[in-house]
């Protein structure tokens, strides 16, 4: 009998332990062969010219903005429904985040609202579409608006390793793409880590310099950078996960299909919608639920771990309200944050566990609550 359904699970193998142990023995901990191999394998896997390993997804976003020349006072358009880092990367450069509402079905940036916000923004410089929960945003629409307003497209692909939009990998469609390897992501490096990808050699060079104190290959410091490097242990760990990430995306899709089918007849639950052009990798399986908070505590009593991603829209966080001159009303995201709940999701979830979660949801709405 299923008693506990964990929210997520992380793959650790003997191979990973051996790989990282051999880095320990090598004595070479930064800027070595593991990072070089990880970058080149990542670029090959996702069909992109350049991959630059960095210390986190936040670092990747921050370096992407800097490499793209985003400066103090420039407007960076982004969906209000995302993790805080999408905004903090821009705000730490003193750029101005401009918050855009999201599509009520896919939860990704609403292209009509993007166009409206771009047309009003003073100094529009970049747009950061977020492939939220593992489903690519409407990249065709984003590209159209970006071309019209001269925006650099920086994809926040932190939740979307191996997702595809019209056959192309998420993160490789815009000018730059940013990935996170935070432990709960679809692949990790065994701690914090990130990757910035681009087909543009100049942007890649700029990112490489900026991650390493602004130092060029000749050893001269030509930019003001910081230390955003990814170390050798993590690169070694990441190389192993990279080999599986495509399969894990497929396994997550299979588990999502089980939930979809099982929850189709529960009228109080809205299951995720997948756009035709997208191959979703379900970093998170998020439903909209009536009486969300009561449902969560009922599920917790039945041993089911759940989460909320995210409890607040970006423009509602106190620090943002304080720092950004005016915050808009964004009705879709403001409604969503009170209704969404993330159910357990990882590649190794089994049918019995999905059944346990769904049966508990049915019991809740069927009146079996305490
Ligand atoms: C959408 C999104 N953007 C940015 C980040 C930041 O990545 P990290 O935690 O690796 O800095 C994350 C992950 O936490 C994320 O989910």
From TrEMBL:
The keyword Transferase applies. InterPro entries: DegT/StrS_aminotransferase (IPR000653), PyrdxlP-dep_Trfase (IPR015424), PyrdxlP-dep_Trfase_major (IPR015421), PyrdxlP-dep_Trfase_small (IPR015422). Keywords: Aminotransferase, Pyridoxal phosphate, Transferase. The keyword Transferase applies. GO terms for molecular function: transaminase activity. It holds the Pfam family DegT_DnrJ_EryC1. CDD domains: AHBA_syn. Belongs to the DegT/DnrJ/EryC1 family. This is DegT/DnrJ/EryC1/StrS family aminotransferase.
């Amino acid at each position: 009998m299923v008693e506990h359904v964990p929210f997520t699970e992380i793959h650790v193998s003997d191979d990973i332990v051996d790989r990282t142990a051999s880095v320990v023995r090598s004595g070479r901990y930064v800027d070595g062969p593991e990072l070089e191999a990880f970058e080149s394998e990542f670029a090959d896997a996702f069909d992109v010219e350049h991959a630059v390993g960095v210390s986190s997804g936040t670092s990747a976003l921050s370096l992407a903005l800097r490499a793209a020349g985003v400066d103090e006072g420039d407007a960076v358009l982004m969906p209000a429904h995302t993790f805080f880092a999408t905004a903090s990367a821009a705000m730490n450069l003193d750029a101005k985040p401009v918050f855009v509402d999201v599509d009520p079905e896919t939860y990704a940036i609403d292209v009509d609202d993007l166009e409206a916000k771009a047309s009003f923004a003073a100094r529009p410089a970049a747009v950061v579409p977020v492939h939220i929960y593992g489903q690519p945003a409407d990249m065709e629409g984003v590209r159209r608006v970006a071309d019209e307003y001269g925006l650099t497209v920086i994809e926040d692909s932190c939740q979307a390793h191996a997702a595809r939009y019209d056959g192309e990998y998420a993160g490789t469609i815009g000018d730059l793409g940013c990935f996170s390897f935070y432990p709960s992501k679809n692949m990790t490096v065994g701690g914090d880590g990130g990757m910035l990808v681009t087909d543009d050699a100049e942007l890649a060079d700029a990112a490489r310099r900026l991650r390493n104190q602004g130092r060029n290959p000749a050893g001269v410091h030509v930019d003001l950078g910081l230390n955003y490097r990814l170390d050798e242990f993590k690169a070694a760990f990441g190389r192993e996960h990279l080999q599986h990430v495509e399969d894990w995306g497929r396994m997550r899709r299979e588990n999502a299909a089980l939930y979809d089918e099982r929850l189709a007849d529960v009228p109080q639950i809205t299951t995720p919608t997948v756009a035709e052009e997208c191959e979703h990798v379900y970093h998170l399986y998020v439903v909209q639920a009536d009486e969300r908070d009561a449902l969560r505590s009922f599920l917790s009593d039945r041993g089911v771990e759940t989460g909320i991603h995210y409890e607040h829209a970006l423009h509602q966080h106190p620090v943002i309200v304080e720092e950004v001159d005016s915050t808009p009303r964004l009705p879709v995201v403001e409604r969503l944050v009170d209704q969404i709940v993330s159910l357990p999701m990882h590649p190794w979830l089994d049918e019995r566990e999905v059944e346990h979660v769904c049966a508990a949801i049915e019991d809740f709405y069927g009146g079996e609550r305490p």
